[in-house]
Write a structure and sequence with these properties.
- By secondary structure, the chain is α/β, with parallel strands linked by helices.
- It contains seven helices and four strands, in the order βαβαααβαβαα.
- The two termini are 29 Å apart.
């Protein structure tokens, strides 16, 4: 955390990591933006657990192409699959090139203790888990604001980049004297 203080922006797993950083050291986080964010200790739905299992089974068989297709079918709108398929393939190749290290997260304070200015963004077509996570964060973090992006699923930055950029620019400029 040597580069902090800073505004943190995270998407999906990156959102969960940004949230953890803000919870662990809120004085070093100026603003927090969570896009389709995960949440520590979230109890995933059967739908999500099924997805995780299908991806893990394909990876365990060494079938990266099948794992890529599991991801495409679950997360990506059909009109973006050709664009994202090579990126997902590369991500899985990198993730499976070595044994995954054990990650031990420090104990986190309750979500309700966070008072960093927070913008929570979720697509209106995102999975139910992420819709519920977005509402839980917004309801728990003092002053957090929820923005639901119409026409977007989990990949708001791919499906609605102009809207995401508008929301980010506006939020990050608030109280900074920067014109939007």
């Amino acid at each position: 955390m040597g580069l902090l203080p800073a505004s943190l922006v995270g998407n999906s797993l990156g959102g969960g990591i940004a949230l953890r950083a803000a919870l662990l050291d809120p004085a070093r986080v100026d603003r927090l933006v969570l896009v389709g964010s995960g949440l520590p200790d979230w109890e995933w739905s059967d739908e999500m657990r099924g997805y995780f299992a299908r991806e893990e089974e394909a990876v365990a068989r060494g079938d990266i192409e099948a794992a890529v297709e599991v991801n495409m079918a679950f997360w990506v709108a059909p009109d973006h699959r050709d664009e994202l398929r090579p990126m997902q393939r590369r991500a899985l190749e990198l993730q499976t090139a070595h044994d995954e290290p054990e990650v031990v997260w420090p104990e986190l304070p309750p979500l309700e203790t966070l008072s960093v200015p927070t913008l929570v963004i979720v697509g209106d077509r995102d999975k139910d888990d992420f819709q519920r996570i977005a509402r839980r964060i917004t309801d728990s973090v003092t002053g957090a604001r929820l923005e639901v992006v119409a026409g977007a699923g989990h990949l708001v930055g791919v499906e609605r980049p102009d809207e995401l950029n508008r929301l980010l620019a506006g939020f990050l400029a608030e109280d900074a004297g920067v014109p939007e």
